[in-house]
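Re: export button greyed out
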Amino acid sequence: MKTYIIRRLIQGLLVLILVSLMIFIAMRMLPGDPVLIYISQEDMQTFTDDDLMKLRKQFGLDKPLLVQYVHWVAGLFKGDFGKSMHYDMQVSYLVAKRLPITIHLGILASILSILFGTFSGVVSALRRGKHVDTFVTLFANLGITVPVFWLAIVMIYFFGLKLGWLPVFGYTWPFDDFWMSTKQAIMPVICLAIVPLSGTARQTRSSMLEVINQDYIRTAWAKGLPERDVVFRHAIKNGLIPVVTLIGFNVRYIFGGSVLIETVFNIPGMGRLLVDAVFSQDYGIVQIGTLIIAGVVVITNLLVDLSYGWLDPRVRYN
Amino acid sequence: MSQETAAMNDFEENVYQSANLRRFFRIFFTRKIVIFGLFIILLLLFCAIFAPFIAPYDPYKQDLRSAVLQPCKAHWLGTDALGRDTLSRIIYGSRTSLMVGVVALGIAAIIGMTLGLLAGYFGGMVNAVIMRLIDAMMAVPLLLLALVIAAVLGGGLSNVMIALGIGLIPAYCRLMCGQVLTIRENDYILASRAMGARNRRIMLAHILPNCFPPLIVLVTMQLGMTILAEAGLSFLGIGIEPPGAAWGAMVNDGYKYLLTHPILSIAPGLAIMLVVFSFNMVGDGLRDALDPRLRGAI
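Workaround output, generated via the alternate export path:
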C-alpha cells in the first residue's frame, strides 16, 4: 500500500511536469509577439527597438526556451507566478481572486450532481422498466448530450427574462450577500452539474442493476428483510463503488464547463480568465491556470484511486 | 485435408457469420430510440450532402431589409441580424458539424490507435512513456486543451479539427491499449510468433482487426461528443469564420436578440442536442449488438 501511494505520487508529479512542459512549449509557439501586445495599450509610436529589447529582457523572453522554463518553474516554487502582460498585474493576484469563484460554483455543482445523480440512478435501478426508470434514463441520456452554453441561454430566457425569478448574470461572494449569491448561483450551478449529474445517474443505475442481481442480495430478500434494509445496508454499499471513479472525471468536466458557463453568465472566475487570456495571448495566465486545473484533476484522481481500495478491500494494489 | 472437408468448413464459417449478422441486426433494431437516432443521423447526412438543394435561401446572402424577422411563412425560423435565413444556416451548419466531427475523429483515431497499439504491444518503457503523456493530456479538460491548441495554431476551421483531434487522442489510446493487452495473450498470437511472424505483422494482421468492435462503438459515441465540443469552441468564437455557418456560433449570435427573438439561439442549439443524442443512442445500440459485455465499459 505504501509503495503504491509513493508510486502514484511520483506518477502524479510526472504528469504535472509533463503538463507544464506541454503548456509552456505550446504558449511559446503562439503566433504574435507578446511584448507588442503589452505596449499596444501604451504608446506604440514612442517605442524604439531598444525599448522592445529592454521589455523582452524584463519579461525574460530573450533567454533560451529551456532557461525560460526552468526560471518559470523555480519561480513557481517561490510563489512567483509571473506577471500578466495584458492586465499588468501579478498572475498570483489574479488567480487568487478568480479561482475561489470557480471552486465555489464547482463544489456546489459536484454536490448537486453526486446527490441527485446517485439518488435518481438508485431509484431507476430499483424500479427497472417502470415509468420512473424510463424518465430517468431518457433525462440522463439527454443530459449528457445537451450543449451547456445553450442550456444556460434557454434558462436565462425562461427564468431570467420571461419569469424574472433569477438574475441573468454576475456573481456575488456568499459571505457578502448570501441570498443574492445563491440566487445568482442557481442557474450556473445547474448548467455545470447537468452533464456530471446525468453521467452519475447512468453509472449508478447500471452498477446497481448488476449488484441487485447477485446472490447475496437474493439472500437478503430471502431472509425477509424489508426493501429499505436490502437497499441501504446491502446493495448501495457495493453499487456505489464504481460511481466513485466518476468523481475524477466530473472534476475535470466541471472545470472545462466553467470556461463556457462563466462566459455566458459573465462570472469573473477562472474559466473566463482563461478564455480572455487565450484571446489576448497572455502566456502567464494560461500556463498557471492550466497547471492549477491539471493539478486539481491529478490530485482528485489520486484520492479516488486510493479510496477505491479502502471502499472495496477486494482491490489489490500492484 | 480433403477438398470436401475444406468446403464443409467454409460452409460452416458462412453459416456462423450470417447467424452473427442476424443477431446483430435483431438486437440493434429492437430499441425504438436507436432507430430514431439512426433516422436523425441519416437526415443529418442528407442535409449535409444536399444542403444547396434543400435550403430555401442562400445561407450567406445578407438582406438588411428583412433582418431579425420573427418566424413566418417565408422564413420558418426567422432571420438573423444580417437578414440571413436561420433554417438555411442550420442546414448548412450541419456540414460544419459533420466535417469537423469526422476529420477530428479521424486524426484522433489514427494517432490514438497507433500509440495504444505500440504501448500495449511492447509494454515496459514504451508503455510508461506513452501512458504518462496520455495522463498529462487527460489532466486538462478537453475544451481547455482544444482552446489552447486552437490558439497556438490560430483560428480557422481546419485548426479546430486538429485541436479537437489532438484533444481526443487519449480515449482511443487507452481503449486500444487495453484491448491489445488482452488480445496479445491469445494462443493464436503465440502460434503466429512461433511461425516466425515479425512484430509488425502480428500487430497489423492479428491484433488490429480483433480490436475493432469496441472501437467502432467509441467512434460513434465520440462523434456526438466531438460535435458538441466543436459547438462549444465556435460558441466562444474559435473556428468557423464569418460568414460560414456553425451551430455553436449561431447560438452565440442569437444571444443578443434573446429577449425578442429567442428562436435564433434555441433552434441551432436544439439541432446540436438532437444530433449528439442520436449519435449516442446509435452508439449504445451498436455496443449492445456487437458485444453486450461492453455495457458500462464504454
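The longest helix of chain B spans residues 86-122. The button fix ships in the next patch.
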